[in-house]
Amino acid sequence: MRTIEFVYPIKTKAISLTGEECALNCAHCNKHWLKGMSPPEIDENTKSCLISGGCDINGRVPLTENLELIKKLSKKTKLIAHTGLISEEDVKKIAPFIDSVSFNLVGDNETIREVFGLEKTVDDFIESYLAIKKWVKVFPHITIGLHAGKINGEYKALELLKKFGTEAIVFNVFIPTPNTKYADKKPPRIEEVLRIISHARVEFPDALLVLGCMRPGGKYRRELDERVIGMVNRIVMPADTAKKRAKDLSYEIKRFEECCIL
What we know:
Layout: E1 3-7, E2 12-16, E3 48-52, H1 67-74, E4 78-82, H2 88-94, E5 100-104, H3 109-116, H4 122-135, E6 138-144, H5 154-164, E7 168-173, H6 190-203, E8 208-211, H7 218-227, E9 234-236, H8 240-248, E10 252-256
Parallel strand pairs: 1-9, 1-10, 2-3, 3-4, 4-5, 5-6, 6-7, 7-8, 8-9
């Protein structure tokens, strides 16, 4: 029987190490998504934590600066880290305390400059990815349409993952967000999203493919979630249309209540 996993990450707490502060003011976010994160503390309902936060001017999340806190939390719960760009030296410092890493991979230099305002290149992202991969289990994330809703580097990112190796890929989709430079842009066409994920399924037949939590809602989400059944192994917070389609196609449905990269 075919199996699909539906993920409802209610037992993973997203923690920001920087509060609502970020040095980058990214075109797609402008600190908006930090507002939904919590201060660095946990309770009895927390089974895992996503350690994240805003970046500095070099695209780093201040993980090593908070190493004692990370050590303390690791004694109480499983930890996932969103690193941003990171050196191998810093990876080695956090590796003993981290169960897995979420790493946003971008395959286009123009997108890096335009979206993040960073004078970095795809090579810098790959260097960080390989450093993490050497020491910790890493789940590369590709945001489809990150560059103002345009497809610009997603296929290159997949090509690089093919070259350097991965066991899993998480796909997010650009969300037009209020009070950002891209607030009036549109998400990529669903056909384009499906084409990229389908391409990944062919290129990575044995990999775990995940439709991640960051994607537009409403009608867009209902159609995307339904149509991606058969391409991905996991869907985070699936729409009812996806659940119905999976049931109609006689999938065995498994439910998880922590972050999709655990």
